[in-house]
Design goal:
By secondary structure, the chain is an alpha+beta fold. The chain has one domain: Aminopeptidase (3-Layer(aba) Sandwich). The chain has 5 helices and 7 strands; from the N terminus they run βαααβββαβαββ. It has a 7-stranded mixed sheet, with helices on both faces. Strand 6 and strand 7 form a beta hairpin. The N and C termini lie close together (about 5 Å). One of its GO terms (molecular function) is acyltransferase activity, transferring groups other than amino-acyl groups. This is N-acetyltransferase domain-containing protein. Pfam families: Acetyltransf_1 (PF00583).
Length: about 180
């Protein structure tokens, strides 16, 4: 399995918006979200605007052997622009449990070395194990995990310093 990231062109934004509805669906159980009157899990599409308006926001599709498998949205963290932030990360169910998410995270971090963080909603505790495992494969135990506030929400924060592929020997980009 070859995992790659593809920068999302503005002309492909509609595809990201379609995927985003599945991403919101994933939060329906932990957050108790309901469908809108059209039978969709709605979101404000304008929240994606910075990904095409700002130089410090980078939207990527995650591809598995060329097939669309999810997305990752990377940005400089607004309260601390010295830190890169995994703003949103989504892998379609078809691809879960196959190592694709870990490889996609590695590919995203390889784009920009330095200080990183991953924020996990406290209510979405089911994914915390994935994130810890993925980060440990990248940097060993050299990261921190703690609760902190973000936009008036208590969230788990994983913080790490990423130096590049030299730490990736346990991850193979081609299976």
């Amino acid at each position: 399995m070859t995992v790659s990231l593809k920068l999302i062109d503005i002309r492909e934004r509609h595809v990201l918006e379609n995927l985003f509805s599945y991403y919101v669906y994933e939060f329906s159980q932990p957050l108790g979200l309901s469908l809108d009157s059209d039978g969709k899990y709605a979101f404000k599409s304008e929240t994606l605007n910075p990904y095409w308006l700002r130089d410090d926001h980078h939207p990527y599709f995650i591809l598995s052997d060329g097939e669309l498998a999810g997305f990752v949205l990377v940005r400089r963290y607004p309260p601390n622009i010295a830190v890169w932030d995994i703003d949103q990360f989504f892998v379609l169910r078809k691809f879960k449990g196959k190592g694709l998410g870990k490889k996609a995270l590695a590919a995203a971090l390889d784009q920009r070395l330095g200080d990183w963080q991953i924020r996990i909603m406290k209510e979405n505790i089911d994914v915390l194990g994935f994130w810890q495992s993925a980060v440990e494969e990248l940097v060993g135990g050299d990261y921190s995990l703690g609760l902190d506030m973000d936009n008036e929400l208590e969230m788990y924060f994983i913080r790490l310093f990423y130096q590049g592929k030299s730490k990736l020997q346990c991850l193979d980009f081609v299976d």
